[in-house]
């Protein structure tokens, strides 16, 4: 499936009457339409709202901005998926096609979600805890504002790849970050971590640990923050098999963090992917029949009851 940026260039930008193009949002946006590149080639229609600043005090507004993808027409009280990109904390962007791939089209048109992709400040400016707090601030903005786009603020989920998974795991285990943003951990209803690593910082190389987290490394470690009674949401871990990513620690990291969550009474399924490498684990989500897509749908379906309202913990 072509990514959303390619859609703007290669698919059909909808030509609609003026009265259909008008909407209530005074935000830069694009109406996008076309068909999926894979069977069943179903139509895709969505609105892409771009570069919405969630923290105007950062001094780097591009780094503290997000994009919102909305089904067209809007779906009332739609659940929301917030995506955090990877890039080793030094590169990456909310609209980069290698991170997004079919996710915006898949979540909006197949699952009926609003899809949000957020930036955060990169190193060296975004050294911990700045980058982690940026993710929490983005979630807080979504909770406060997503209803204006048709979203349900009580159904917010988070998905993250690689380095983004590290940030998401910190926000989703340490309540301090959302509290700093004026919110509670219960804001997040579920987290999907895609081939991340290093959730237990005690096993990280000391020099890398100090470079990224300084003397706060123990307090920053997601595994060290897991415990019962903290409203930590359920997690899904997708990790690649060691055969396609020699030297990767993502499998052991996923198993170790899942065990800590389960020991605390929190749902935490782990799915091993033997058909893709690190980037493929992220890029295949949304492709029909792929194990990544099936795992995501199974996890989200287990958290929501049939009337799509009540969250199940």
Provide keyphrases for this structure.
single chain, Rossmann fold, 313 residues, alpha/beta, disordered N terminus
Describe it for me?
The protein is of the alpha/beta class and 313 residues long. The protein has one domain (50-303): 3-Layer(aba) Sandwich (Rossmann fold), CATH 3.40.50.1820. The protein has twelve helices and nine strands. A nine-stranded mixed sheet has the order 1-2-3-5-4-6-7-8-9, with helices on both faces. Helix 5 packs across helix 6 (163-171). The longest helix has 16 residues, at 130-145. It is globular and about 50 Å long. The two termini are 33 Å apart. Mean pLDDT is 87; it is low at 1-22 and 306-313.
Tally of individual helices:
12
Query: According to CATH, what is the class?
Result: Alpha Beta
Give the name of the CATH superfamily. Alpha/Beta hydrolase fold, catalytic domain
Q: Spans of 5+ residues with little confidence (pLDDT < 50)?
A: 1-22, 306-313
- Shape by Cα distribution: globular
The amount of helix comes to 25-40%
CATH architectural arrangement: 3-Layer(aba) Sandwich
Strand order of the largest sheet: 1-2-3-5-4-6-7-8-9
Estimated radius of gyration = 19 Å
**Based on the structure, what is the oligomeric state of the protein chains?**
single chain
Q: Quick check: average pLDDT?
A: 87
Main sheet summary: 9 strands, mixed
């Amino acid at each position: 499936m072509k990514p959303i940026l390619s859609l703007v260039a290669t698919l059909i930008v909808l030509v609609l009457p003026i009265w259909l193009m008008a909407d209530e949002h005074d935000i830069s946006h694009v109406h996008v339409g076309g068909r999926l590149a894979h069977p069943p080639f179903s139509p895709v229609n969505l609105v892409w709202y771009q570069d919405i600043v969630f923290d105007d005090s950062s001094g780097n507004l591009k780094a503290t901005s997000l994009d919102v993808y909305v089904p067209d027409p809007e779906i009332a009280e739609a659940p929301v998926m917030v995506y955090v990109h990877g890039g080793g904390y030094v590169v990456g962007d909310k609209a980069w096609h290698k991170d997004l791939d079919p996710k915006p089209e898949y979540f909006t048109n197949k699952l009926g979600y609003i899809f949000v992709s957020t930036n955060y400040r990169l190193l060296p400016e975004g050294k911990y805890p700045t980058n982690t707090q940026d993710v929490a601030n983005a979630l807080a903005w979504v909770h406060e504002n997503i209803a204006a786009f048709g979203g349900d603020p009580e159904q917010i989920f988070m998905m993250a790849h690689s380095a983004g998974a590290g940030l998401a795991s910190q926000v989703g285990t340490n309540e301090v970050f959302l509290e700093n943003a004026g919110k509670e951990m219960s804001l997040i209803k579920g987290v999907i971590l895609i081939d991340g690593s290093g959730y237990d910082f005690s096993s990280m190389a000391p020099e890398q640990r100090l470079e990224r987290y300084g003397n706060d490394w123990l307090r920053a470690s997601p595994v060290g923050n897991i415990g019962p009674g903290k409203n930590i949401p359920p997690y899904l871990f997708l990790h690649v098999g060691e055969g396609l990513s020699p030297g990767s620690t993502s499998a052991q990291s996923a198993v170790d963090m899942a065990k800590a969550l389960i020991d605390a009474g929190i749902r935490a399924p782990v799915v091993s992917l033997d058909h893709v490498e690190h980037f493929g684990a992220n890029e295949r989500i949304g492709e029909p029949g792929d194990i990544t897509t099936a795992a995501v749908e199974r996890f989200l379906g287990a958290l929501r009851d049939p009337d799509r309202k009540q969250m199940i913990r």
